[in-house]
Amino acid sequence: MVIRDTSRPHWRALEMAGALGVNIAAALFERRITRQDYGDMIDACQHCTWAEACGVWVRTQTNGAPAAPDICANRTAFAALRR
Asked: Are the beta carbons of 32 and 81 closer than 8 angstroms?
């Protein structure tokens, strides 16, 4: 049996959202995304091959980033939430 740490992708998704100025909690509350949508975002982070570099990239975004990097599995989702 393989046990995956699901907390790390959760926090990675929230950190990326924060770096982009996206408020996931507000998006859920306002029903711009569903719980399933958010679960899919976490799942995308869970299976991302860029995970280690993602954390480094997020930490370098001190003034907010205009967009997620091209390699981000949730780039499109985050772009939609910024609108």
From this structure: yes
Task: Locate 12 and state its tokens.
Answer: 């990675």
Q: What angle do CA 74, 63, 78 make, to 5 degrees?
A: 15
The token pair that represents 14 in the structure block: 């929230």
Distance CA 50, CA 47 (A): 9
Report the distance separating Cα 58 and Cα 49, nearest Å.
15
Report pLDDT digits (tens) over 18-31: 999 999 999 999 99
Task: State if pTM tops 0.85.
Answer: no
